[in-house]
Amino acid sequence: VPSYIQTLRALQELTASLVSGGAGIGLETTIYLAEKGCTVYVASRNQEKSEKGIAKGEARLNGKGGPIKFHHLDLSTIEGSLKSADEFTRIESRLDIIIGNAGISMTYMDELSVDGWEKTFATNHLGHFAFVTNLLGLVEKTATKYGEARIVMTSSRGYMVASKLDYDALRTPIEGNGSSIWHMGGSFFRYCNTKLANIYFMAELDRRLQERGIKNVYCNSCHPGSVAETGMGKGQKSLGPYLEEAIRGVIHLFCNSVEDAAKTQVYLAASKQIRVKNVHGEYWAPTWTWTQAYNGSQKQKLIVLAENEREEKKLWEVSEEAINKATAPDRIRSAI
Fold first, then answer.
1. If phi over 0 gives left and psi between -120 and 50 gives alpha, with beta otherwise, what is residue 51?
2. Disulfide: which of 69, 172, 203, 260 matches 294 by Cβ 3.0-4.6 Å?
3. Which residues neighbour 192 within 8 Å (Cβ) at sequence distance 6 or greater?
4. Nearest-5° angle of CA 73, CA 78, CA 81?
């Protein structure tokens, strides 16, 4: 039986931009891609933390595989995301893979983002939307010249408890929100809504590309698994550090390893089967044995709310409007 890494295509000479690829699932994804020869850019706001992760990855690769580099990206602002994409286009001539792996959770509504949006939505969706769409020109050029490209968004099965996206609510602060432990429920559901947005984004982007006759850019989303070793939700002012760590310790007992949790997004980004089976606009997740060992990744049936073309188009339009409001009109480089 071939090992998981042997099932992936060779990635020599390919270039990937991996958002938040310096820790947790992101670092494991970086290592898998680099091990197959890919040049991986770890796109992140925190250079010091990312470079520590890059050093760990390089040590595990022991001189083998493709290079791993840092690329600055601040997803919390639209302008920061656009500038990061501009800089990437300036320094690189090809981009075969984008993986939108970053995510924050458990933020509160007492304060909005710089651009006037709920902070989880601003980072988990709008930042990724601005970054990815401003790189589409390079992605399309790469797919035309080298045969294909991949875009993957890391979603979550938490989307299943999401509600219809309320854009007015996402732009309305709530005074005092976050001061009580009882406010954590609302934070969790806002996070789940962003995971629904990730699925919408990939479905709508793939549809728009195909409508333009671009069929060799494969856009998909995935649930990675249940992982405790992430930075999401840390520093809860309503919990305190000791209770927070105790809760994380209990959760860890029921979670999957970060090595296994990275495998589905790597499969969507690097498996030959995605092209062979013409996988477009789908949502995938890992499967597990009864001992919680990784047992392959498969397409998942979405709930009705997540298969709503009208809502997918609405999210796209709202996102475009947000970009145009935050920066110069029609900033999205690709004519989608």
1. alpha
2. 260
3. 156, 158, 159, 160, 161, 162
4. 25
Confidence of residue 241 (pLDDT cuts 50, 70, 90): low
Q: Do residues 4 and 263 make contact, with C-beta atoms less than 8 angstroms apart?
A: yes
Per the DSSP assignment, residues forming a β-bridge with 137 are: none
- Distance between CA 323 and CA 136 in Å, rounded? 15
Q: Give the whole-angstrom CA distance, residue 67 versus residue 50.
A: 14
| Rounded Cα–Cα distance for residues 141 and 149 (Å) | 9
Q: Alpha helix (H) ranges present in 62-183?
A: 78-91, 119-121, 128-133, 136-146
CA 228 to chain centre: 17
Q: How far apart are CA 209 and CA 211, in angstroms?
A: 5
Rounded distance, CA 106 to CA 139, Å? 33
What is the full DSSP assignment across 51-82?
HHHHHHHHHHHTT-S--EEEEE--TTSHHHHH
Q: What is the pLDDT of residues 179-208, one digit of tens each?
A: 667 556 678 999 999 999 999 999 999 999
Contact assessment for residue 152 and residue 284, using Cβ atoms and an 8 Å cutoff: no
Position 303: which residue type? Answer: I
- What the block records as the tokens of 290 is 């009864």
Phi, psi of 125 (to 5 degrees): -115, -60
Among 216, 219, 220, residue whose Cα is nearest residue 148: 216
Phi-psi region of 110 (alpha: psi -120 to 50; beta: other; left: phi over 0): alpha
Provide the CA 51 distance to its chain's centre, in angstroms: 20
From the list 297, 309, 10, 287, the residue with the least C-alpha distance to 152 is: 297
Q: In what order do the strands lie in the sheet with 68-72?
A: 68-72, 39-44, 15-19, 97-100, 149-154, 217-222, 283-288, 294-299
- Percentage of the chain with pLDDT > 70? 85
Q: Which of helix, strand or coil describes residue 249?
A: helix
Q: In the chain, what's the furthest Cα-to-Cα distance? A: 57
Residue pair 134/331 in contact by the 8 Å Cβ criterion:
yes
Q: What is the dihedral of CA 199, 200, 204, 205, to 10 degrees?
A: -50
- pTM score: 0.90
